[in-house]
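pasting for ref
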Amino acid sequence: MLSKMKNQSSNLMDAILNLRQGRFVLIHDFSDRENETDMVIAAQHVTPEHIKIMRKDAGGLICVAIRYDIANKLGLPYMLDILDFASKNYPNLSDLIKSQASYGKSAFSISVNHKDTFTGITDTDRTLTIREIAKLCDLALKNFDDVHYRFASIFRAPGHVQLLIASDGLISKRVGHTELSVYLAQLAGLIPVTVICEMLDDETHRSLPSISAKNYAEMHNIPFVEGYEIVKYYKDRREV
């Protein structure tokens, strides 16, 4: 894979290597979209130390992004679909789901805890939940027939790990951090499931400016990748 990328951005190559090695990557989406930088790690490699760094240095919502076909095998719904169904009994929910963000349909699904966690919120509890999700997603990739039953028996909801479902077709349909990070994991030959967390600014109480995120990346030797770099590589591969 890397040999095919020799003419591509070195940032992208470094990001793929980092993900393979169980290290962080920073992804900035687009200035005309969320204009946010997410801290990203491959779900199969996550540790309590990673969770600690995400909550302390990033500060946003720690989520698990799952490729569409895998989420479908697990029987995961989009939260919008759940709310739409529930609005038949709770009509006020209809108004809530009509107010979508300007950048498209939300990737949010349900939140879960692994059955062996205590409260589910500690670094160790969330690590257990995330790593077990990655293991189950790997079984789904290998076409185990009973993964949706295993999912229901291994996890409980609601929980403290928020699940996200990448769009069908990944970045050909949507270019959020969910799709961008899952596509990177896919390029790295990993289980296409990632842990992502928005980087927030302690001073402005808003999203961390991209220049500050770049400075953080340089200080900690973490690859910083722009969304357009990932999209360009995707489009270039399709033209080959």
